[in-house]
Amino acid sequence: MQQPATSHGPLVWRDMDQKALDDAYDQDIYAPNRPLIVQRRIAASERSRAILGPPQRVAYGPSEYERLDIFRCPAANAPINVFVHGGAWRRNKGPDYHLQAEPLVRAGAHSVILDFINVEQAGGDLMPMYEQVRRALAWTWRNAESFGGDRERFYIAAHSSGSHLVACVLTDGWREEGLPENFCKGALLLSGMYDLAPVRLSKRSSYVAFTDATVEKLSSQRHLDGLHTPLILAYGTGETPEFQRQTKDFFTAVQAAGKPAALIVGEAYNHFELLETLASPYGLTGRAMLRQMKLA
Known about the structure:
11 helices, 10 strands, two-stranded antiparallel sheet, 38% helix, alpha/beta, Rossmann fold, single chain
């Protein structure tokens, strides 16, 4: 695993110079096996579709990007888990994560996997991504009965930039959609970003058009008064120092605000290896997800 170079230039964020900060928001520096994990994930998703059958694909909004996939379990009035993928806000699509559905369906839950615009398709603006994820979650909650789901047992799991977007919905976006404050009974957020100030200073600003308003609006750690969902937060010790710090600081802030939260530390997992544990009922985070949903 590559380590960041010792800081030699002017400090940009805390004890980091520009290169160190750029590396701390570049997963490939700390997880050079990402391409292999992506291949495994796509192959496993194909196998899951072969086993479970194709999902029901539904439009939750007017644009071509606003689609979600529903994998139903046989049980009526079953709990729901919605998965929101990551990808540095710029890559990946819902079907690449269909492997997440199999353990949930086997455990007696409906699995819903979101598709949404990426930041490059949105011209560098994060707001359309946030708004689409917000609408998708609201659509799924409101239409739960249409696919045999129980909206009173509504849960979310997310990874990386998906965790960032979900945290924004849970702290603020639920109001904008007119949802009840307790619409989500629990969320499992892996390896997220919860304050965009340092991200804005990194090389991610080469493709994200950060503004003061965007950083304020989409930094969930600044809006914890609106959080009413119990959280499980997770990070791996093989992740970049900033992704570890982001989760640790968010966990501390949530606890300080008197909100329920638990922390999972994945020893020796990098950013992408930690996500692989979510698709197994015996994995570090998969077990936690099922326990949170009372399906363990």
